[in-house]
Design goal:
heterodimer; A: 491 residues; alpha/beta; Aspartate Aminotransferase, domain 1; 7-stranded mixed β-sheet; B: 447 residues; Aspartate Aminotransferase, domain 2; 4-stranded antiparallel β-sheet; 14 helices
Chain lengths: 491, 447
């Protein structure tokens, strides 16, 4: 049920009262002295920072109230396509908070961090098995950084062979991070057109494959939720021209235990542990974006690599051809603990069942909604389905309108206007953790909206009315950016 | 199966409605040749209690900062984490939400991002801060790319005062755009202005200095700013925001971009990640800034609300022309920092700095009394300092471990010229007893 609009409209600064405080710090047990005696005056701040002065109760109540202004997986069906908003198991949180993990400094001597290094080593072996890859780097902090890592390894591979290739091919249906990461790695991006089913057009691919192409980067299953069935032809065609094939692993939740990128001929793939492997999305991260590679790319892995020798585990820094480091330390370890706990909890059969049920749920939603919204492609989908609101658009109702109305009906919205190749796209990813009952409620709401588009469009255009705020003025926000609180000025 | 809600009966019912006889029917697009014909070779599923036992065992193999007095620094610090942080960030409404694409249903997250941006900008002495980058090192790499984009120049000068691990990350990010990286040398632990002046030229896009620097010393940032600005280069300052309750904000010293690792602001050590990449800059550079930004606006009824804004900088709109490839950042860590800063407030954060400075200076004085041990540099330092030891630092660290002390970071792995040096960090958490025990154990270890 939609909740009532909470009448809370404060920023923490607006609760501030001079002299109030929430911190607890001990008396100084060493001779204190004046900081000005220890440090030259030029280094000391002249005025204290304008931080709030609030009590602990203020803090707890403020952030608890703010939390109530959010929808999350714990409270709502969250069918945000491409993001795999599945349930995040609570035991994973307990495990990541074990003191030997959460309170472990990254520069602790290796001999005194064997448990952490072992966990990383085992997780990288597990992900290699799941993906059919030879090696996995756990260092990238998120999917986009995984892409950069993978493309830089491809670049290093070509350069090591004395080849200066300058282009990367990417389908027009790709996530925006694909071209952005590729450009950051120094390549020019060539966009390929998808065919009517959103699949790679083999003829178009062939025309673009030349000696200047370093890589072809695709999402499998693709962003329409379809498995690229001619994948072997694609990878063979690329390899025949010395082109490396990169798989964006955003949609890995569809294929666990069913098929493996390594067996399909991919040279590189990244994982989003915050999608497939249940680490929480956190309102926008932290994620983790490990990268799997075939052995010919192993010399270029980011340093250091966790290795096992007879005596234990250690960080191997002696990687002369490494592309370097991506973050200061070894990876988003806290997320790695959660993913490890999940893989151990599920086991091989459980993981396969995850993907089977993700596919079942998406097809169920597709079946129930296909009479009411246009499909983007024929046949069964994988773990997500992409619908088009072009029929509703003719009635004056856009994908955005539908998204807003869903919020009123007690659901988070699907991804909208993505992939770009589908008009008025509604990208729905139910995930395996939703029950049939939850899916039925969601489908009923979608069908209700389709009917309202015909009978009572105003209720959709007015939506949302049950959320803490109603539709927000994005243009104003961009034209007159107000990006911080300033004392005495109400934003 | 746990975490999967549908019963076998429901699965059959759903298949019937779909018009398929089995889940296999739904996988027809995957050719037989592409199918994995065996189960994944992974350990079998574990029950919760077995998993807990297993992970507790792995956890116990690590020397965590609860069981050891932690004097390790080098980019991650054992600052106190107030209890409310974990309770609040564990709320599922924060924890299990994603990027606020639907702002009306994400006002909680958006407001916390706005508060975070405000607090970070204030601490850094800058006009605007973004919603976060992955960690301090990748934040620095993004800053370097931004300096290149703003100036159109290809040269980057990094002082040797910058954490060598950050230096490595910058190198990785400079590979694609082919930026030329040069190091500026130190003189007695500080960036040498005379040497810097010779390296910085009209082709320099940005000059990077760390404050306090990797060795703990306080560089003369103003002098570096003058050298950078004289040739039209941007000054990028790497700073730890937890120190900025007491230290002069880099913005007041001439910084054009301030980046840093915000882990000290209530984020668990967690073996180095996830961390919190802080990024702040000047208002006039905001459209070149990487990462997400929350901004204030109004809704159709005129009520105050918050949205992600200036998104035309970002990859999901601009694709290969975006200012950065970043998508998911570290919103939850930014929330931890926001709550931390709300709790510490204007006086508490200063007090954290004062305690850290007092204890670090007490520790440095006590350790330097040990025969053969001296402070490597004479420059003023903040909460971290570099010791020169008469015996192998690796060996000394092993001896200290026996006393339940994580004694510091041996610098040999970072730079061979400091192979007899140990980097020691002292936060407000360290007690006089711990410091005295360290001094005694150090004396025994080098005797």
């Amino acid at each position: 049920m939609p909740r009532a609009r909470p009448a809370y409209d404060k920023l923490i600064f607006e609760l501030s009262s001079p002299g109030r405080f929430a911190y607890s710090l001990p008396e100084c047990d060493v001779p204190e002295g004046d900081p000005a005696a220890l440090l030259p005056k030029a280094h000391l701040r002249e005025t204290p920072p304008a931080l709030p002065e609030v009590s602990e109760v203020d803090v707890i109540r403020h952030y608890s109230r703010l939390s109530l202004m959010n929808y999350g997986v714990d409270t709502h069906v969250y069918p945000l396509g491409s993001c795999t908003m599945k349930y995040n198991p609570k035991i994973n949180e307990d495990m990541a908070r074990l003191a030997g993990f959460a309170r472990l400094h990254p520069l602790t001597p290796e001999g005194a961090s064997q448990g952490a290094l072992r966990l990383m080593h085992e997780l990288s072996r597990d992900l290699a098995e799941i993906s059919g890859m030879d090696e996995v780097s756990l260092q990238p902090a998120a999917g986009a950084q995984g892409e950069l890592t993978g493309v830089l390894m491809i670049r290093a591979y070509h350069l090591a062979r004395g080849e200066r290739r300058s282009k990367v091919l990417i389908p027009d249906s790709a996530h925006g991070t694909n071209p952005a990461s590729t450009a950051l790695a120094g390549y020019s991006v060539v966009q390929l057109k998808s065919d009517d089913n959103g699949e790679v057009d083999l003829g178009d691919l062939e025309r673009h494959l030349d000696a200047d192409v370093a890589a072809f980067m695709i999402t499998q299953p693709n962003t329409l939720g379809l498995f690229e069935s001619r994948i072997h032809q694609i990878t063979e065609q690329c390899h025949a021209r010395g082109v490396q094939v990169y798989m964006d692993g955003a949609n890995f939740n569809a294929i666990l235990g069913i098929t493996r990128p390594g067996d399909l001929g991919f040279d590189v793939c990244h994982f989003n542990l915050h999608k497939t492997f249940t680490t929480p999305h956190g309102g926008g991260g932290p994620g983790a974006g490990p990268v799997g590679i075939k052995s010919h790319l192993a010399p270029f892995l980011p340093a250091p690599v966790v290795v096992a020798d007879g005596k234990g585990f250690r960080l191997d820094w002696s990687r002369p051809q490494s592309i370097g480091k991506l973050q200061a330390f070894w990876g988003n370890f806290g997320m790695l603990v959660r993913a490890y706990a999940y893989i151990r909890t599920m086991g091989p059969d459980g993981l396969r069942s995850v993907s089977e049920n993700a596919v079942l749920n998406a097809n169920y939603v597709l079946r129930r909604l296909e009479a009411h919204y246009d499909r983007s492609a024929p046949g069964p989908c994988m773990h997500e389905c992409v619908l088009s609101a072009r029929r509703q658009k003719r009635l004056g109702i856009t994908a955005t309108d539908i998204a807003k109305r869903l919020l009123d009906l007690g659901f988070y919205a699907p991804s909208v206007y993505f992939p770009l190749i589908v008009e008025e796209a509604l990208m729905i990813e139910p995930t395996e953790t939703e029950s049939k009952e939850a899916l039925d409620e969601f489908c009923d709401a979608m069908i209700q909206i389709a009917r309202e588009a015909e009978s009572n469009p105003q209720v959709i255009k007015d939506a949302p009315v049950t959320t803490p705020v109603r539709r927000l003025d994005q243009t104003l926000a961009a034209r007159q950016p107000r990006l911080r609180w300033t004392p005495g000025v109400r934003p | 199966m746990r975490y999967i809600s549908n019963t076998p009966a429901q699965q059959r019912e759903m298949l019937e409605i779909i018009g398929a006889s089995s889940i296999e029917d739904l996988l027809v697009r995957i050719p037989p040749k592409a199918r994995l014909s065996r189960p994944l070779a992974l350990p079998p599923a574990m029950a919760e209690m077995d998993l807990v036992r297993h992970l507790r065992r792995l956890s116990a193999e690590n020397a965590g900062a609860d069981d050891y007095a932690c004097f390790l620094g080098g980019g991650a610090y054992d600052h106190a984490v107030p209890s409310p942080i974990n309770h609040l960030v564990s709320r599922g409404e924060f924890f299990t939400a994603y990027t606020p694409y639907q702002p009306e249903a994400s006002q909680g997250t958006l407001r916390t991002i706005y508060e975070y941006q405000s607090m970070i900008a204030e601490l850094c002495g800058m006009e605007v801060a973004n919603a976060s980058i992955y960690d301090g090192a990748s934040s620095l790499a993004e800053a370097v790319l931004m300096a290149h984009a703003v100036t159109g120049r290809d040269g980057i000068v990094l002082s040797r005062s910058v954490n060598p691990l950050y230096h490595q990350v910058v190198e990785t990010y400079c590979e694609g755009p082919n930026l030329r990286l040069r190091s500026a040398p130190l003189a007695d632990g500080l960036t040498d202005p005379d040497a810097l002046r010779k390296i910085v030229t009209g082709a320099t896009a940005g000059v990077v200095v760390q404050y306090p620097n990797f060795f703990g010393c306080l560089d003369d940032v103003k002098a570096v700013a003058e050298i950078a600005h004289a040739v039209g280069a941007l000054l990028i300052v790497v700073a730890d925001p937890v120190n900025l309750g007491l230290l002069t904000p880099p913005g007041a010293l001439g910084a054009d971009i301030v980046v840093g690792e915000g882990q000290g602001l209530g984020v668990p050590l967690s073996f180095g990640g996830p961390n919190l990449g802080v990024f702040a800059t000047r208002q006039d550079l905001v459209r070149r800034m990487p990462g997400r930004l929350a901004g204030a606006t109004v809704d159709v009824d005129g009520a105050r609300g918050f949205v992600l804004t200036l998104q035309t900088r970002e990859q999901h709109i601009r694709r290969e022309k975006a200012t950065s490839n970043i998508c998911t950042n570290v919103a939850l860590c930014a929330l931890m920092a926001t709550i931390y800063l709300a709790i510490m407030g204007r006086r508490g954060l200063r007090r954290v700095g004062e305690l850290s400075v007092a204890k670090a200076h007490y520790a440095a004085a006590e350790f330097a009394k040990v025969p053969g041990v001296r402070l490597r540099f004479g420059a003023p330092f903040f909460k971290e300092f570099t010791l020169q030891l008469p015996k192998s630092p690796e060996r000394v660290v092993r001896r200290l471990m026996k006393h339940k002390i994580l004694g510091g970071v041996p610098l040999k792995a970072f730079d061979r010229q400091y192979k007899d040096c140990l980097l020691v960090a002292v936060t407000e958490k360290r007690t006089r007893d711990e410091i005295d025990a360290y001094a005694a154990a150090l004396a025994a270890a080098v005797a």
